[in-house]
Specification:
This protein is α+β, with helices and mostly antiparallel strands and 425 residues long. The chain has eight helices and 19 strands. Strand 1 and strand 2 form a beta hairpin. The protein is globular and about 65 Å long.
């Protein structure tokens, strides 16, 4: 259900969310949008309420700033420049150099900005107004892309040279906090909490797709210090691009060419091919299938796809599919952590990226696509990682260190393929 004071543009909660998840909207002190997504019955019923005011003395995020010499200068949004060799847009967000880091040897923050507020604690620059929460979503304080209200986005050229188009990076960046436990792991969350996370992805996909200028919505999760995570907290992000990202452009091009050549949907036929082959399917339930793709490039890679055809984006999933996805994601994270054996049977906290590939918002090729999750890790052994060296980084020409069949065989050792009745909470 939606609390009073927020009118959705495209999001329509299903039966489960209407009864068991309450979305409460507010704004942080600098004007950013913030949403509590509560699954605790006391908050869903309204018996308890969340704190909505942000007590921090933050200035308007679009207001003027002081430069290095103390002079007031107008706000400058992130910009992006187009690479003439590849056609790729490259956002450039210098404000991210100042973002807090709590993970790794380069940590700069003594407190966790994604944790619930702790009254009396010396650190009071957290993003969550309340002292507890279930799931929250809010605009990133240090975004790679952002939309400035009322701005007229104009394309110019670096140094006045038409070789290098430049314009505002007028996308949107949001953070999704999965749980208030600062030391928790996403793999340890109950399926019911992951169901709320799935609802958050669907909610934001629906709402952001109604915003002008957004071309692709990309929910993802970076996990682990080795991946480059700067905040040690169970959370993910949603990048909403004002362009089609290069990987998605490649996939759309292949999907369109396949349809023109065969009349079929490439992602549907890939899934059917994996089901027919069988040996690379690692687990499944009534609504989803997880498999290692036949041309996997990462030393540990799994794709997850819905069984039902016609699903382009996360907000198009029905209640059964959202529950099925929560179960699949829980299973995937647990088995991912068990994939590499240290010899003690305990596995490891796997560094990974979980990347949601959704159909673009407006591109005419969106009907050629199909929703899928691409999950991967660059760890290739307990004590080794795959470095993206000359061939991969220099030429984007991948060399795999294993085979998809070996990856799948290891996953199939870790649990049953059919997980419909498996306990994952």
């Amino acid at each position: 259900m939606l609390s009073e004071g927020y009118t959705p543009r495209r999001y329509v909660p299903g039966e489960y969310a209407s009864r068991h998840i309450r979305i409460t909207a507010t704004r942080l002190a600098d004007g950013r949008r913030f949403f509590y997504m509560d699954d605790d019955p006391a908050y869903v019923s309204g018996a308890k309420t969340r704190r909505l005011d942000d007590p921090r003395p933050l200035t308007d995020r679009f207001g003027p700033r002081l430069d290095a010499e103390g002079r007031e200068v107008p706000f400058q949004p992130p910009q992006m420049r187009r690479d003439p060799l590849t056609g790729d847009w490259i956002p450039m967000a210098t404000a991210r150099m100042n973002r807090p880091i709590t993970a790794g040897p380069g940590a700069t923050a003594k407190g966790n900005p994604l944790a619930a507020r702790k009254p009396g604690d010396p650190y009071q620059d957290g993003e969550i107004p309340d002292t507890d929460y279930d799931v929250v979503v809010f605009e990133n304080r240090f975004p790679s892309m952002m939309q400035v209200p009322g701005a007229d986005v104009q394309e110019g050229h670096v140094d006045g040279n038409p070789l290098w188009p430049v314009r505002e990076a007028n996308g949107r960046c949001e953070v999704v906090c999965f749980d208030p436990n600062e030391q928790g792991l996403p793999a340890d969350l109950p399926v019911s909490r992951l169901r709320t996370v799935v609802e958050a992805w669907a909610f934001r996909t629906a709402e952001i797709s109604a915003m002008d200028g957004i071309e692709q919505i990309f929910p993802f999760e970076n996990h682990g210090q080795e991946i480059g995570v700067s905040l040690a907290h169970p959370h993910g992000q949603i990048y909403s691009y004002p362009f089609i990202a290069p990987r998605m452009e490649q996939e759309l091009r292949q999907c369109r060419a396949y349809r023109e050549r065969t009349g079929g949907n490439l992602l549907h036929d890939i899934l059917q091919g994996e089901l027919e082959a069988g040996e690379r399917v690692v687990f499944r339930n009534r609504t989803w299938v997880a498999y290692v793709p036949a041309a996997a490039r990462w030393p540990m890679e799994v794709h997850v796809a819905p069984v039902r055809d016609g699903i382009l984006t996360l907000d198009q999933l029905d209640d059964d599919e959202r529950w099925g996805l929560a179960q699949m994601y829980s299973t995937l994270l647990k088995r991912g952590n068990a994939f590499f054996d240290r010899g003690d049977g305990r596995g490891m906290d796997l560094p990974y990226i979980a990347a949601w590939h959704q159909a673009p918002v407006r591109d005419g090729r969106r009907e050629d696509y199909r929703l899928n999750l691409q999950f991967f890790s660059f760890r290739r052994a307990v004590d080794k990682i795959k470095y993206l060296a000359g061939s991969e980084s220099g030429m984007a020409a991948w060399v795999s260190d294993t085979t998809p069949e070996r990856i799948a065989a290891r996953f199939r050792q870790l649990g049953p393929v059919d997980i419909e009745d498996e306990e994952t909470a």
